[in-house]
Amino acid sequence: METRRSTWFDTLLVVILVPGMILALYMAFLGAPRERTMGDLQRIFYFHAPSGIVGLIAFAVNFFASVAFLIKKDRKWDGLAVAAAEMGVVFLTILLVTGPLWAKPIWLVWWTWSPRLTSSLILWLLYIAYLLIRNYVPDPERRAMMSAVFGVVAFVDAPIVWFSIRWWRDIHPSPMLETGGLSPSMRPAFYICALVFNILMIYLIRRRYFLEMARHDIERLERRIA
Amino acid sequence: MNTMNYLFAAYTAIWIILALYLYSISAREKRLREDVDRLKQQLEK
Questions:
Q1: In terms of CA atoms, which chain A residue is nearest residue B28?
Q2: pLDDT above 70 as % of chain A
Q3: How far apart are CA A209 and CA A10, in angstroms?
Q4: How many structural domains compose chain A?
Q5: Is A188 a member of any domain?
Q6: Measuring CA to CA, which residue among A145, A153, A155, A147 is closest to residue A130?
Q7: Contact present, A213 and A65 (Cβ < 8 Å)
Q8: Is A98 in CB contact (< 8 Å) with chain B?
């Protein structure tokens, strides 16, 4: 039976994550300079933007794992897909909570139905639906198949979220790294936060993946006993 | 509300969301261990 064992790699990730998080907070609050127009409020950016990036990467992992499951019918791909979907939802939740807290004092509204915000909310709702579907389908084979198909279809919205600020006029700022909107003195803080969030995503996906595989083994044993 | 309050609220929310997720994973791992124990007992009968 495959159960979760803390490997040297998981330990290494935790060893990197603890000082990494402290460094990320230091860079966001003290390392990066105070922005001229928005002041300290702009420091939300250092965790807000990486959350969005990491969320989209997690959904991309879900997409590729779903495709791999549909081709190979191996349950490990289903385990990876659900782990990645959950992670995407967690990081997109951070994005959707910190966004309005940044928007309110700057745009004077909590929310506006702009292309970037609307497509991000739709993406979040799609993967909430993905996770709910899994809870309501008792048969493991059918559940894995249905969620793989749903995962492939839901991912269509991810490129729309990414390109929305390039395709349409939007109140949301344009991609700052590409347009040079982010000052070079702010970039180290952004890169460190993005790196730490990616490591956090890998650690959490691994933990959730082992949980799913152990659950799968238990379901199989229960069926054998019954 | 002062802009610093929004900054504080945003970072507090981030840590609460991450802490809740870690707690949810730990709770599910605990439930799984209980399931394993229950299955072991069933097999021993």
A1: A211
A2: 94
A3: 12
A4: 1
A5: yes
A6: A147
A7: no
A8: yes
